[in-house]
Design a protein that fits this description.
Blueprint (H helix, E strand, L loop, with lengths): L4 H11 L8 H14 L2 H8 L13 H17 L3 H9 L18
């Protein structure tokens, strides 16, 4: 996904109605691509609006954790610690730890 080409393909498919989740998958793809590039501000811009809307895609807790932890890592790496704290506060009960480097600064 490195050059965002796949994200653009997903956006086109979503516009054509091929994803029941609509906007969610293209935004998710943009967020993951930005995070992979080290563009944590871009990752936040794409992923923050998706927070709390994981039901759009279904999936397992591990898949949802990947989304949340990617956003959390972006908050930590951009020193947006208050937003990171809010994200941690709304996480579903029962989560067993948060394996994100730097998260100790938030707790």
């Amino acid at each position: 996904m490195g050059d965002d080409a796949r994200a653009r393909q997903i956006e086109e498919l979503a516009r054509d109605g091929h994803y029941p989740s609509g906007f969610y998958l293209p935004a998710l793809a943009r967020g993951f691509a930005a995070s992979e590039r080290g563009d944590f501000t871009g990752a936040i811009e794409a992923l923050a609006p998706l927070a709390g809307k994981n039901e759009c895609i279904g999936g397992s807790r591990a898949q949802h954790d990947l989304i949340d932890f990617t956003l959390l890592k972006a908050y930590v790496d951009t020193s947006r610690l208050e937003e990171a704290r809010r994200l941690l506060d709304v996480r579903r009960p029962g989560a067993s730890g948060v394996p994100v480097t730097g998260v100790a600064t938030v707790l």
